[in-house]
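Sample 3 of the quickstart, ligand zinc ion:
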Amino acid sequence: MEELNKESRKTPYSFLFGAIALLLIPMSFLLWPVADSEKDEWSSQEEEHTKDEEPNLYFGFIKDSFYVYESEIQRNEFLSNILLAHKVSYATIAELETATRDTYSVRRLRAGRPYAILNRDTTTAADYFIYKPGAFNYVVYSLKDSLYAEVFYHPVDTVVRTGAGYIDHSLWVAMRNGGMSDALIGKMEDALAWTVDFYHIQKGDQFKLIYEERLIDGEAVGVGRLLAANYIDRNGDNYAIYFENENYSGFYDLEGRPMKRAFLRAPVRYTRISSRFNPRRLHPVLQRIRPHLGTDYAAPHGTEIFSVADGVVTAASYTSGNGNYVRIRHDHVYETQYLHMSRFASGIRPGVRVKQGQVIGYVGSTGLATGPHVCFRFWKNGVQVDHLKENLPPPEPMSEEDLPLFFAHRDSILPILDAIPIIRPDVKPAFEVVDRSLQQEILELSR
Ligand SMILES: [Zn+2]
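Result:
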């Protein structure tokens, strides 16, 4: 199956690589930075309108007819503080509060968000208060004649972009250096966390991705869906393809199996492996050869330890060797155990059901331990095995009826993903806008 797929991809790959390279080069001047969603967009708003040759339009108002005051809501500042300074009476403010309760309550105004006051005549009360809760919408409060609030949404454009980079320290650092947002980094982790152990990745690993970006007036305001990704490590390609139809949605491998697996790769985040599974190890405390039938993850005292899979707690107790430990049965084949905890998470006791990723305890050094770490043990049919070498059963692929649709989608998007050039390690990862027609094609594909 694997071989067959590689074969069938060769033809579109070489053809499309040339085509896409040609399309991408002229587009390379379009290297927009990703806007922080928290960024204040007032200044860009004006610039955009200038470009659109609508210099007078300001949130739907003729700007030249008003005095415009712009600021942002301060901590502990109330709407009344703001409006009183612009000659709006207490009575009006109280009425406004009632009148806008069902449309956009003034209680929803938040410190740090930008606002504007529009006033025709500054010797009298202001006419409008405009509040911007986020990049996608704004609220107009009418302060004269009839008091009301109305929410307006900016038209949002979706463009498809590609990204790539080399790992130096971590995926997070590499994507951050490439100007990619935390939201996008989170999506990469969601797609690949079960196949790639992001907390123990190697320098020199590479990644590629195709994703949607949301634009308002040409300004990036956030990411949409991650459409496809590949994380290339020493074991080769790790593909994740986003697919959505009436029966399925999420990330799938090339065979149409969900990326989400029954077992997480590690029981702790942001740690290093301090000792691997080793049947002949010199024990650091006992100073003699004793098999090490687990994997040690060194982590600061108090770090969260989570269950690597759904299951039932069979033990949460203490022995002089294990210290505080939790044991979990996942099914009739697999069990896991977590040793040397400083304490258990609340509610963790025998008989309790736990979910994958649920916190069951905290890193410590109870029992026979030289420093804070979690010794993670993995049982298969009652025998302790090295979970990092275990070929865990892959999840079932999607149904026979849906697979052909998925394969067609995969075969269209994969050549585009493969053709993304990998940036040399000495060059900062950058990203490109996919050509318009190609973009349309991808958007149609993933609708
Ligand atoms: Zn250990």
